[in-house]
Each structure stands twice: as structure tokens, then as C-alpha cells.
Design goal:
Order of helices and strands: HHHHHHHH
Helix content: over 70%
Mean pLDDT: 75
Largest sheet: none
Radius of gyration: 25 Å
Strand content: under 5%
Number of strands: 0
Shape: elongated
Low-confidence stretches: 114-118
Number of helices: 8
Length: 212
Amino acid sequence: MFRRREEKPIHRRIVDFCWPAMGWRRTVSYWAHRVSRLPGSTYSIAAGFACGAAVSFTPFVGLHFILGAIWAWLMRANIIASAIGTAVGNPWTFPFIWVWVYNVGVRLGFSGSAHDEEALDFAALFGHMIEFALKFDLAYLAKVAWPVFGPMLVGSIPTTIVTWILFYYGIKYIVTAYRQSRIRRIIKKHQESERGYEQQLAPTLEKDNSDP
């Protein structure tokens, strides 16, 4: 239903993902309609989207789709909605998310040893983590990555819980309102069709009643 007739090239998709050509307001409205029209119960859609949005606040970059799908599956929620929900974590929001969960982890008592500006270069950190994880360089991960990754992991736990609750009730309200509005439009359209049909029959009925 929402697929384009001609697929965009990959570079255009990347640009639109970072800065939508249709504008942020229309983009948010588009995704709200897309989520609301997904098949399934209100709970399934809202819980699935909340799972995807919540895992976006974890430091497991690159695994959000998988983690969101597993979480949604465990809760018997909509897996497609969870994939859409991971869009909450994007190039515009990740810097704020990472700083937030790191500071929450530090405030909760998990104080990493790296607090300078260079150590908090999250983009470089995650890039090196993936590189050295593939090389099984556990010494690097323990010495350099863990002082930052640890507080982020601890801070993400309460953050994901609060995020899930907020998005669950928010999406539930949106889906419920959309479906009720759609039902009202269908009923109104049906009533207008019936009135139009009655108006078409009215001259015939009057003529039949006037005949002796």
C-alpha cells in the first residue's frame, strides 16, 4: 500500500533518512498513518512499536532491529511495528540518546574512568568496538570500551523501561483514535450513500404514489 512504484536509489534513501525531503511534520504524519494501518490489535501494534523505540536507547548499535524483534516476539507484539519503532534511534537522536544513557549510568553509580571529550567520542568508540570485537581483542574492549559502554548499559535499563511505557500508551492512543476516526468516516460515507440512493428513488416513488 505504501510502496513506491519506482524504488529510490540507495544514496537518496540515506539522504532522506537523515533529512526527509517531505519535511519532518509530513514524515511524522506518514509514519503515524503507516503504524496505525498495520494489521493486528491495538496492543500488538503499540507494544511492538514501543519495543523498537525502547531498544534504540540501548548501546547495542547495529542490533536494534534484532533485539526489537525478539522483544516484540516475546510479548506477542507486532514485529513489523517494532522495526518501525527503531527509527526513533537515528543519526539525529543518537548523540542525545548516548549522552543521556551515559550520564544516567554515571549517576546510578557506574562511574567509568573515561570522562574526557576524546573518550566520549561515541561514533569512534562504537566503530572501534565492532572492529576489535571481530578481532576478538578483549583487552581493548575491557580497557577502552567498557568504561564508557558500561555506564551506557546501566543507564539504558531504566531508560528503556520508561521509554517503553511512554511509547506504548502514546501509540495506543494514536492507533485507537485513528481506527475510531476511520470507522466514523466509513459510517458517514455509508449514510451519505444511502441518502443519495433514497434521493434518486424519491421521484420514482412520488410518481408511483400519484398514479391512480
